[in-house]
Structure formats: C-alpha cells, structure tokens
Design brief:
about 180 residues, alpha/beta, Immunoglobulin-like, 2 domains, 9 strands, about 30% strand
C-alpha cells in the first residue's frame, strides 16, 4: 500500500530542506564550519508517519563570526637574500697557463665549446709578457706576477694561445 499523498509531499519537502542546508554548509569555505552545519543532531527534522513537519530556521539567520582582518606579511624572496638576484657567477672553464724560460706550459689545453673561459697566466720571466687568443683582448702579465681574464666561450676548433717570443700553446675547444 502507498503512503498518503500528504505524507509523501512532507517527506519531499523535508529532503529538499536538508539538501538546501547541506549546500549552505558547503559555502562556508576557508576551513571554517558554517553555523548551520554545527547545529546539534536533535534539531534535524525526522520524517514521521504523520504529515506534520518541523519548521526549519532560514539559513540567513545563522551567521559565522566575522574573521579579524590581518595584515599579510610578505616573506623576503630568495632573490632579495644574499646569493640571489645577480649574485650568481657564470660557469667558466679555467685555463691555467705558466710562461717561463722553457716556454708555455702546458703546451696543450682543452675546453668545452661555448662555455665561458677564465684564462689565468703566471709569468715566471724577468720581464712582462702579453698572451693573446684570437678574437679576444690581449692579457699583459707583469714580471713575476699573475693575471686573469674572463673570456666568452669559443666555437669548436683549435686556437693558438700566443705568448710572443716565449712560445705558444694550443687550445682545443670540443663540442659536447
């Protein structure tokens, strides 16, 4: 036997009201519970065999307490800390060369293509020496001193590292 029509309508209304309350509770957001969902279970209407329904308070009367406004604190970016924003140095391959009475040592050097170079020259001669690499500015080193120069990378190939009358070395730049 089917329940009377009025009991079915009351049950439908009750289900619709519970669905509406659950949607209101979902809108609280921010990890807070809405006041409507925090109500005790005894306040939830239960369908009975009779056609009477328990009235439900409108959701607008239940309000969550206002959250205090806080001034957001902005943490320092890693770029604003020591070691960030321009403090980086480009990767370079060191080319260590000594110029002495026996010539330029080592006589052969190798470096990867396109990677920056740092030419470091130690002069063991009694007078100054100028070291040149094709297409790069010359590096003059005082007697008994040392000097260094940061150079742009080179294309693959063989280059002459010239120390004038003191000799030369061959720089082989390899791809990959």
């Amino acid at each position: 036997m089917l329940p009377p029509l009025s009991a079915t309508r009351a049950s439908c209304r009750m289900i619709a009201a519970l669905a509406a309350l659950s949607l209101v509770g979902c809108g609280a957001g921010g990890g807070r519970q809405a006041a409507a969902t925090a109500a005790p279970a005894a306040a939830t209407p239960v369908a009975s065999a009779t056609a009477t329904a328990t009235p439900i308070a409108p959701a607008a009367t239940a309000r969550a307490p206002a959250a205090a406004t806080a001034t957001p604190t902005v943490a320092a970016s890693p770029e604003e800390q020591p070691g960030g924003a321009g403090d980086e140095e480009a990767a370079r391959t060191a080319l260590l060369v000594a110029v002495g009475p026996g010539g330029v040592t080592p006589a052969a050097l190798t470096a990867p293509a396109f990677l920056g170079l740092e030419l470091q020259v130690r002069n063991a001669l009694a007078g100054p020496v100028t070291v040149t690499l094709p297409g790069r500015p010359p590096l003059t080193v005082a007697a008994g001193g040392s000097a260094r120069a940061a150079l742009d990378g080179l294309r693959p190939g063989r280059y002459r590292l010239d120390a004038g009358t003191s000799g030369a070395a061959v720089l082989t730049v390899t791809a990959g």
